[in-house]
TrEMBL record, chain A:
It is a peripheral membrane protein. The lineage of its organism: Eukaryota, Metazoa, Chordata, Craniata, Vertebrata. This is Amyloid beta A4 precursor protein-binding family B member 1-interacting protein. Pfam families: PH, RA_2. Belongs to the MRL family. Residues 88-99, 480-511, 519-549, 558-588, 597-614, 621-630 have a biased composition (Pro residues). Residues 83-146, 430-689 are annotated as: Disordered.
UniProtKB/TrEMBL annotation, chain B:
Residues 344-440 form the PH domain. The keyword Magnesium does not apply. The keyword Glycosyltransferase does not apply. GO terms for cellular component: cell-substrate junction. CDD domains: FERM_C_fermitin (cd13205), FERM_F1_KIND3 (cd17185), PH_fermitin (cd01237). The lineage of its organism: Eukaryota, Metazoa, Chordata, Craniata, Vertebrata. This is Fermitin family homolog 3b isoform X1. SUPFAM superfamilies: PH domain-like, Second domain of FERM. Belongs to the kindlin family. It comes from Xyrichtys novacula. InterPro entries: Band_41_domain, FERM_2, FERM_central, Kindlin/fermitin, Kindlin_2_N, PH-like_dom_sf, PH_domain, PH_Kindlin/fermitin.
Length: 689, 646
């Protein structure tokens, strides 16, 4: 074990060196798992060393593979960034991807204060707000070509942007997490703070070959308090883990939890709970559907109207007292003694803003609870006994389930439903996939980017991450200067906040692209080839769910960062066939494009919905589009729906046969070598399949 | 055929003019009668809107091709010749009164459609007209004082096909006065004075509420048939609480009227809510009124993501001002802004004897740390407190110059209580705002920091005015009496200075919302109330000897025990097989799946109203299925009309 330890330290040291050597540029090198991380890593374990010692050899191997991949990614990314910084001249916005608000503004802003670059930047910065605010279709300003000043200003803005990204990146926390499986074995993952539970689950699906059904959950247990809860898919995993104390024996479990999505399968049990059991059992599917519609698809999410006598363990006391509680969207209330049940007499027991809900285990013996059906409300940071923890006990499991679910609905609202839809899609896709083939995941390593890689490297992981997709991507592309390969990573980082809502007005992107584009060679060639125009992205935040054959889809993501295609996809019902063309010919095409840097695609006019147009144009300008596709049609249908959602599943990774899906996914440009690597992988795959 | 004399009263000749008598035959069609009439009066004007009203039979003779015989009109018929569109005083959900010309000859359903078209409200099927509750007390001078917005000049032809101009129907763009009216319609009203709220009629019980629902007009019959006269006063209200496809971009008027109706429902306790909910509603009203002053048009919100980035860029830029720095310098310079000052701290749980102690405080990122003094602030702080996830509560008394920030800070062992004491308003506003942002994981670089400070200040100002001069003070428009934001129950329960911090507390969660988002949030919370959407009727179930209450909601019927107020039974529409009305005994019978049959007679309302309510909701639920935008009026009447429609 000592050697392993040493190896790991070595590795970290190497990464440090590497980053330092690269780090001459202004930007703080993106911190690979390094010193800083060591500290962070330790959560959940006494410290890194200990945690590593705990690991099984296989885990370690996997982890190492991940780290190496991480390292590679970092290296390339840094190299690319350095290039960018050194040669700022290439006009920044080659990218077709139109940042929503941001890209647009530069033009006007710059025009206003053309002289001083400084002020130029400032105006850029400030204006965005206004431009982005206007909901209406953006006026097509693009008549004038950008002047030098504008370009300069733009570059400046890009730099700032980059700097910001770097800063954010520098602060990203990563944890090594050991997940306990049902069979008692463990899997070790690296998770960064931007990853949602959904992404981590996808990662685990990959590693465990489970059936990917909607019940799979990550649970945290608190040993000291005898609590557990499953995370909601949209939550971030790292944050709650950071609340653990250093010496805690808390664990993360990967389990099936039927109750997680039960409300969507049997809404009558929650919304019509007063009816007798038989009526509930006999309810028709169409009525269930209606219930879900009524309660989760309206302007307001409806919380089940619960009322029950529960046992409450009073602050700091040992005894349990009965009270009549009511659940409302705004919190849990109780009826004070001698008062009526009318709303105005209710006393607020808790509101949910700062509380999480947990199941209590064995409270009968631990706290002398009347039954073992207990749940607890507490601030996530509280880890030990405290008077601020609220303990409630129900008469039976049914009641407890009712309340816990009701409280989750009140607390998380529509996110629960979105999570469910996402996981359902995932389940369908993967079941389709398992039927087809079962490639061995373990074989994957760097050359065929394996899932693990993604998970690890923060950038990538995030880039594909469900939520942020659109936002980040577009921003990035707008600002980041040229080099093709790097773009991907930055994207992930930039996006601070979760994805813009899908509802946004039509994407203004085309505009932006237009005005600035001219000078700059498109960095990402891919977009052009691929049908899906980046502009679309703005609208649809969600990355496309993997096509039925998810394997194919997965590969690409690793190489090609940008998800744009996906977005495009969503908006364009029928994605252009070219995507499917992945076979050999395309690569050549891509490579060519890269170098030649065809002028950015003229913008097709800013009609909001025109995504399709852009693509065509874009494709046309540069090298002829790849040979007509075929085959891909099948997967299509599935994806579109996914894209509509807010939180699509993170792209799964794995090795697979046909790239078709992948091509689409990979919109971003990898460098030439990426392409060749991709080719190799594909060939390999094909060979194997 | 023999000719006979028919006398017709022509309204345009004045109330005292004698009826015009014309000679007709039974086979003359109504159009011919009108022609003769017009010739006889010798008045030149546009008669196209006029029609004949048969008073005894209470019906319009709108089919001009029908003969008098077909209508069954004889010489004794009392006919009135008058316009179909007449002025009506319309009380809007926002409490304003509008005078406009409405159709008196078509079924009320169409009349409402016409009114909504004039006002630019989409989905008129959700609204209807009802007779207002009489205002008993103040009949004296009150009416004269009331401002009436006049829309009667709007030509009917322009209303039939409204074209938009500047986002509003073209007829509102004709004059500044008209634009003013549109503004009144589409913007939210400032909070009413507490006295106004107190004076309004408030239903005190379910039975009172049930009586209000007995006032709805019958959608299948016209205004004339329901005894409504020219210039009568009616209320326009959302009747069916099933709001389809709300789109802030197109629904400026609809949304603001809906908000007003919801607000008044809350203020008048037409719908019950808890105290916490009331505070949140109050906070939202405050925010909405504040934002609408600065942001008059409803603008769709931009994404928070952009906001965040912009603010970060902005702060970055501030730092860089002046020096032309390389990218690396830029980065070094870039740190989030911080706050530094001397404050006093007190930890109630610990060492209570010590009281408040002064330290040099620094707020950075989302943490507070403190040092012995300013000079020592370079070293290690005495303590660092991360505010993320903590609870922040104000404890302020302006008069006593007490400015306390109470922090409840989570730690593995529980929550730690810490009080920070500020010297003055200025300091308090800054630190309070910082703590609030910190608790949400935001830094001072966040764009909402300044507005947070502002709102804390205006709340402080509120405390000042309300404690300084009583009641209707010379309040600047910045400050609002918090009693304007809650129902009268809380006027008694809390003084404004007690109320203000509670509302401010709720306010911190909504302060970032744009106007549209705030209005939407208000509506969402309203819709999430357990009693939302219930319209009550007192009924007598078949086989029962006492009155009970039937609640009609968008998706279900509930039976409520009048004595206890408990819901006894719930039936959902999707289980409903059929329903019938026995018009002779005025009883409704409904059959549900599983052989469940109920029947009841209506006590507080005509059973046509109840019937229409149920049919109306079923109609509303069909809307999502058919994609077409056109309203299926026929279906509506089929579902709600009863025997008259057939």
């Amino acid at each position: 074990m000592d050697d392993i330890d040493a190896m790991f330290t070595d590795l970290l040291g190497e990464m440090d060196l590497l980053t330092q050597s690269l780090g001459q540029e202004t930007v703080p090198p993106e911190p690979p798992p390094s010193a800083k991380e060591e500290v962070k890593l330790s959560y959940g374990f006494t410290d890194v060393n200990a945690s590593l010692i705990d690991l099984e050899d296989t885990d370690l191997d996997a982890l190492m593979a991940d780290l190496v991949a991480d390292l590679n990614a970092t290296e390339e990314k840094l190299a690319a960034q350095i290039d960018d910084l050194r040669t700022p001249s290439p006009p920044p916005q080659g990218l077709p991807a139109p940042p929503k608000g941001l890209s647009t503004q530069p033009a006007p802003a710059a025009a206003a204060s053309p002289t001083s670059p400084q002020s130029g930047t400032s105006s850029n910065v400030s204006t965005p707000a206004s431009s982005s605010t206007s909901p209406l279709p953006p006026p097509p300003p693009q008549s004038a070509k950008p002047t030098m000043e504008e370009i300069e200003a733009q570059m400046k803005a890009d730099k700032i942007k980059l700097a910001l990204e770097k800063l954010k990146e520098a602060k990203v926390k990563k944890l090594v997490v050991k997940v306990l499986l049902n069979d008692g074995s463990t899997k070790t993952l690296m998770v960064d703070e931007r990853q949602s539970v959904r992404e981590v689950l996808d990662n685990l699906f990959e590693k465990t070959h489970c059936d990917c059904n909607v019940n799979w959950s990550l649970c945290e247990t608190n040993h000291e308090l005898q609590l557990e809860r499953f995370f909601e898919d949209h939550e971030n995993l790292v944050e709650p883990l950071l609340a653990w104390t250093r010496d805690s024996e808390n664990k993360i479990l990967f389990q099936e939890r039927k109750e997680k999505n039960e409300v969507f399968r049997n809404p009558q049990n929650f919304y019509l709970w007063k009816k007798d059991k038989k009526t509930l059992r006999d309810i028709k599917d169409k009525d269930k559907e209606l219930l879900v519609q009524e309660n989760f698809c309206g302007t307001s999410i409806i919380v089940p109207d619960l009322e029950a006598v529960l046992h409450l363990k009073e602050d700091g006391k040992k005894s349990w007292k009965q009270r009549l509680f009511q659940l409302r969207a705004s919190g849990i209330y109780y009826v004070p003694k001698g008062k009526t049940k009318s709303s105005r007499d209710l006393v607020c027991f808790v509101q949910f803003d700062n509380l999480n809900i947990y199941y209590g285990k064995d409270f009968k013996s631990k706290y002398k609870a009347p039954t073992d059906f207990c749940f607890v409300l507490k601030h996530p940071q509280i880890q030990k006994e405290s008077q601020y923890i609220k303990y409630l006990c129900c008469d039976d499991a049914w009641t407890m389930n009712l309340w816990v679910t009701g409280i989750r609905i009140a607390k998380y609202g529509v996110s629960l439903y979105d999570n469910y839809k996402t996981s359902e899609k995932k389940a369908v896709v993967s079941s389709a996939w398992t039927n087809r083939s079962t490639p061995s995941p373990s074989s994957s390593n760097q050359s065929t980017p394996s899932p693990t890689i993604r998970a690890k490297s923060p950038n990538q992981a995030n880039g594909h991450a469900t939520t942020p997709q659109p936002g980040p991507v577009s921003m990035d592309s707008g600002f980041v200067p040229p080099p093709p390969p790097p773009p991907p990573p930055p994207m992930g980082e930039v996006l601070p906040p979760p994805p813009p809502d899908p509802v946004l007005p039509p994407p203004p992107p085309p505009l932006a692209a237009k005005s600035f584009k001219k000078p700059s060679p498109p960095q990402r060639h891919t977009p052009m080839n691929f049908p899906p125009p980046p502009p679309a992205m703005d609208n649809l935040p969600p990355p496309p769910p993997p096509p039925p054959m998810n394997d194919s889809f997965e590969d690409p993501p690793d190489f090609l960062p940008p998800p744009p295609p996906a977005a495009g996809f969503g908006s364009l019902p029928p994605p252009p066939p070219p995507v499917s063309s992945l076979p050999p010919p395309p690569p050549a095409g891509y490579g060519g494009m890269d170098q030649s840097l065809p002028p950015p695609p003229p913008d097709p006019g800013f009609l909001p919905p025109p995504p399709p147009q852009p693509m065509f144009i874009g494709g046309g300008a540069p090298p002829p589009p790849p040979p007509p596709p075929l085959a891909t049609a099948a997967p299509r249908p599935v994806r579109p729906s996914g894209s509509v959602k807010k939180m699509p599943p993170a792209p799964p990774r794995r090795t697979t046969p046909s790239l078709s899906g992948g091509g689409g996914g990979g919109g971003g440009g990898g460098g030439g070598d990426f392409m060749s690597e991709l080719m190799m992988a594909m060939n390999k795959k094909r060979g194997s399949s | 055929m023999a000719a006979w004399d028919l006398s017709v009263t022509v309204e345009d000749l004045g109330p005292d003019a004698p009826p015009v008598t014309i000679s007709v035959a039974s086979d003359l069609h109504v159009g011919g009668v009108i022609l003769k009439l017009v010739e006889k009066t010798q008045i030149k004007r546009d008669w196209s809107d006029h029609a004949l009203w048969w008073e005894q039979k209470q019906r319009w003779l709108l089919r001009t091709a029908w003969t008098l015989e077909k209508y069954g009109i004889h010489a004794d018929a009392r006919l009135l010749f008058m316009p179909q569109h007449k002025p009506l005083k319309l009380g809007l959900p926002n409490g304003k009164t509008l005078r406009l010309r409405a159709c008196f000859s078509n079924p009320v359903f169409q009349t409402v459609t016409g009114i909504c078209r004039q006002l630019n409200i989409r989905h008129p099927e959700e609204l209807s007209l009802l007779r207002p509750v009489e205002e008993k007390k103040k009949k004296k001078d009150k009416d004269a004082a009331e401002e009436i917005y006049d829309l009667t000049e709007v030509p009917l032809s322009s209303v039939s096909r409204p074209s938009l101009y500047n986002g509003m129907p073209a007829h509102f763009a004709d004059s500044p006065q008209m634009e003013e009216i549109y503004k009144m319609l589409s913007a939210t009203q400032p909070p009413p004075a507490p006295e106004v709220i107190a004076k309004q009629y408030r239903p005190a019980s379910v039975v009172d509420k049930a009586h209000i629902h007995g006032r709805w007009l019958d959608s299948s019959r016209c205004l004339m048939q329901q005894g409504i006269q020219e210039n009568d006063r009616l209320w326009l209200r959302f009747k069916y609480y099933s709001f389809y496809d709300i789109e802030p971009k197109y629904d400026a008027v609809r949304l603001s009227q809906l908000y007003e109706q919801a607000r008044w429902a809350i203020l008048l306790e037409d719908i019950d809510c808890t105290e916490e909910e009331m505070m949140l509603f109050g906070a939202l009203q405050y925010h909405i009124s504040k934002v609408s002053q600065s942001e008059p048009q409803m603008v769709s919100s931009n994404s928070a993501a952009m906001d965040d980035l912009e603010s970060a860029l902005l702060s970055l830029e501030v730092k860089m001002e002046g020096e032309s720095s390389s990218a690396s310098e830029m980065l070094e310079n870039m740190t989030a802004p911080e706050l530094n000052d001397y404050l006093k701290i007190f930890r109630p749980k610990r060492l209570t004897l010590k009281g408040y102690k002064q330290y040099w405080f620094k707020f950075q990122d989302t943490s507070i740390c403190y040092f012995k003094s300013k000079e020592e602030s370079i070293g290690e702080p005495i303590q660092q407190i991360n505010l993320k996830g903590c609870e922040v509560a104000p404890d302020v008394n302006v008069a006593a110059q007490k400015f306390l920030i109470r922090l409840l800070i989570p730690a593995p062992e529980g929550m730690n209580e810490v009080y920070l004491r500020c010297e003055n308003e200025q300091q308090y506003a800054q630190w309070m705002a910082a703590c609030r942002l910190g608790s949400k994981g935001k830094t001072l670089a966040d764009s909402s920091y300044q507005s947070e400070i502002q709102s804390i200040r205006s709340f402080l100002a509120m405390q000042k005015t309300s404690s300084g001069s009583h009641g209707n003070a010379t309040a600047s428009d910045e400050s609002i009496n918090t009693h304007s934001l809650v129902s009268p129950r809380y006027h008694k329960k809390y003084k404004t200075k007690q109320l203000t911090p509670r509302i401010l507390d709720a306010y911190q969660n909504v302060a970032q919302l744009s106007l549209t988002d705030a209005v939407m949030r208000f509506l969402q919370i309203w819709q999430a109330l357990p009693d939302f959407g219930l319209s009550f009727f007192v009924v007598r179930f078949k086989g029962s000897r006492k009155d009970e209450v039937l609640g009609i909601a968008p998706n279900r019927l509930i039976r409520i025990d009048l004595g206890v107020g408990d819901v006894v039974k719930t039936w959902r529409y999707n289980n409903m097989k059929q329903w019938n009305v026995n018009w002779d005994i005025r009883q409704m019978a409904i059959e549900f799946e599983g052989n469940v049959n109920i029947a009841f007679g209506c006590v507080t309302a005509d059973c046509k109203i109840v019937h229409e309510f149920i049919g109306g909701y079923i109609f509303m639920s069909t809307r999502s299925r058919e994609k077409s935008d056109t309203l299926n009026e026929e279906l509506f009447h089929k579902l709600t009309g009863g025997h008259e429609a057939l």
